[in-house]
């Protein structure tokens, strides 16, 4: 087991020359990561230092156990939103949990996410990363972004917003418009405009860094706190301390469900991001190995008073753009944040809350991938509909229930795609090798005296009736003189008991018409099912063939011999 752990794989082959690239990259990662590390915890109602703790211990754990050289782990807006919903559900469902420190609940959920990652690795469930399709994730994140934007109303205006959802907070702020603290709103909007200006014009300093520095300087000069603009307040100057959440006080069933939801979204989105960056660098992404790295990167924050984290798009992009070549850049970033926590805590204390709201609002808008939505619309209208369903679920039912809606939409999509598998009668084209779909190739002709039918999908309980009726219709419509019906099973990997019953019914119909039912290229697993269901006995084991050509050669020659014998006896 230990031999399979990707320990220090992200630092494999390290030499000191790499530091020339990794040190500047690490400093850049810390510069970009510090504003989000302070801002993102506010989404879940957590103190800002928890984001810094996660940005320190998470990358260190990933550098030890993560397989990638270039991915950077840290807080991200989508994971924080799901975390906020999970925490709200825990506190609402369990009155006793309301008295538990929110940081303790977040830490417990981080441990839960980490253990889900390890369990998924042991069960080789890296495929779960593909469970939420790209259209579903794009739609879900668009819904999450709107939830984050609405959540910033109170921080921009200085008004306490008590309602939840999308529309109620907007109506509430209209009712409380007289209480809006206009200096806070004006400053927040100015910082928001500055962030977009930095995006529009080539500026070497990252927008969030510029906003934090400028906000702290202005706050110190004009005493924002004394003028009624909310500030971050005291941030502990010490290093994160090892601590264990009081699990016996937690509603463990809610913790498990919340951890599962966070795991599914953060891991799914993290692997999508990892593969996106991997395609640019040529680095292969093994989802099962990434489970170990992400598991460690979540267990560490759970043990040091923080919250779940995932692959950070912005930090990884900075790492690539500044030339980082190994996980040493993540370690340099962690060390830089330690220094910031020790030496800059007094400056961070006066950071205005509206500036953090501007950073969060900008990050939320970046989650809305309009280009990808247009691409999905162009490629598949059906997948675009599922993207809208996922977005609607996150907006209408809350982020946590939106996860359920997204998963349900994925299941519906998968079932819909496999419920009506592609099929067709096959024939030959003169002068060309192989078989061709008669419906798609007008020049193809049926095989004389035989019918070849292909199903490109499994025969399972939810599509067995459809395929039975489809095969029955084909069987009843076969031309007179058809002596054999060959089912091409080369694309059928699994048949269940319901599917076996459907094939038995088709075999019975063909037998009544004196048509031989044969199956070509049947998998061993499907053959075992049909054997136990009695289908093989009904059609005859001699009517199972390794391929279509073998079946047609045997059956047409056998029928030809039988026909010749019949003609000879008649002549006598």
From TrEMBL:
Domain annotation STAS: ranges: 440-555
Subcellular location(s) of the protein: Membrane
Record field: transmembrane: 25-46, 52-72, 79-97, 103-123, 135-154, 180-198, 210-235, 255-274, 324-344, 350-370, 382-415
Name of the featured protein: SulP family inorganic anion transporter
Pfam families the UniProt entry points to: STAS, Sulfate_transp
Domain of life of the native organism: Bacteria
Gene3D superfamilies assigned: STAS domain (3.30.750.24)
Keyword terms, alphabetized: Membrane, Plasmid, Transmembrane, Transmembrane helix
CDD domains: STAS_SulP_like_sulfate_transporter
InterPro entries the UniProt entry points to: SLC26A/SulP_dom, SLC26A/SulP_fam, STAS_dom, STAS_dom_sf
Keyword Transmembrane helix attributed: yes
Topological relation to the membrane, as annotated: Multi-pass membrane protein
């Amino acid at each position: 087991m230990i031999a399979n752990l990707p320990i220090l794989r992200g630092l494999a082959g390290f030499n000191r020359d790499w530091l020339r690239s990794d040190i500047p990259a690490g400093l850049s990662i810390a510069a970009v990561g510090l504003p989000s590390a302070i801002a993102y915890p506010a989404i879940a109602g957590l103190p800002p230092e928890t984001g810094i703790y996660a940005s320190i211990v998470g990358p260190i754990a990933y550098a030890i156990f993560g397989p990638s050289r270039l991915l950077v782990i840290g807080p991200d807006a989508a994971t924080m939103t799901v975390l906020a919903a999970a925490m709200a559900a825990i506190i609402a469902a369990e009155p006793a949990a309301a008295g538990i420190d929110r940081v303790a609940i977040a830490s417990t959920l981080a441990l839960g996410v980490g253990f889900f990652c390890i369990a998924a690795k042991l069960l080789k469930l890296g495929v779960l990363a593909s469970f939420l399709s790209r259209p579903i994730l794009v739609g879900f994140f668009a819904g999450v972004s709107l939830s984050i934007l609405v959540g910033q109303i109170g921080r921009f205006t200085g008004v306490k917003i008590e309602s939840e959802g999308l529309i109620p907070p907007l109506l509430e702020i209209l009712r409380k418009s007289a209480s809006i603290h206009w200096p806070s709103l004006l400053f927040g909007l100015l910082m928001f405009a500055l962030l977009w200006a930095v995006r529009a014009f080539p500026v070497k300093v990252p927008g969030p860094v510029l906003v934090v520095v400028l906000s702290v300087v202005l706050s110190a000069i004009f005493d924002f706190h004394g003028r009624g603009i909310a500030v971050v307040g005291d941030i502990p100057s010490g290093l994160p301390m090892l601590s264990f959440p009081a699990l016996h006080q937690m509603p463990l069933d809610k913790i498990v469900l919340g951890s599962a939801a966070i795991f599914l979204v953060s891991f799914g989105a993290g692997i999508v991001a990892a593969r996106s960056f991997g395609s640019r660098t040529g680095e292969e992404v093994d989802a099962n190995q990434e489970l170990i790295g992400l598991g460690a990167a979540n267990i560490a924050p759970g043990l040091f008073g923080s919250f779940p984290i995932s692959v950070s798009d912005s930090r990884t992009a900075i790492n690539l753009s500044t030339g980082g070549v190994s996980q040493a850049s993540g370690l340099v970033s962690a060390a830089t944040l330690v220094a910031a926590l020790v030496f800059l805590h007094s400056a961070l204390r006066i950071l205005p809350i509206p500036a953090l709201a501007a950073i969060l609002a900008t990050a939320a808008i970046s989650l809305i991938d309009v280009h990808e939505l247009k691409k999905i619309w162009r490629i598949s209208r059906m997948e675009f509909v599922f993207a809208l369903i996922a977005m609607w679920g996150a907006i209408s039912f809350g982020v946590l229930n939106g996860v359920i809606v997204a998963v349900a939409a994925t299941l519906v999509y998968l079932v819909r795609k496999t419920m009506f598998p592609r099929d067709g009668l096959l024939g030959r084209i003169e002068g060309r090798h192989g078989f061709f779909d008669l419906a798609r190739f007008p020049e193809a002709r049926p095989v004389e005296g035989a019918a070849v039918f292909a199903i490109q999908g499994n025969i399972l309980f939810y599509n067995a009736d459809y395929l039975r009726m489809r095969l029955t219709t084909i069987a009843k419509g076969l031309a007179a003189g058809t002596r054999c019906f060959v089912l091409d099973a080369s694309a059928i990997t699994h048949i269940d008991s319901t599917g076996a019953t459907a094939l038995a019914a088709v075999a019975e119909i063909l037998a009544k018409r004196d048509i031989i039912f044969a199956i070509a290229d049947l998998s061993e697993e499907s053959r075992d099912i049909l054997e136990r269901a009695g289908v093989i006995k009904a059609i005859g084991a001699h009517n199972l063939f390794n391929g279509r050509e073998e079946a047609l050669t045997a059956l047409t020659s056998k029928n030809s011999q039988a026909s010749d014998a019949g003609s000879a006896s008649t002549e006598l």
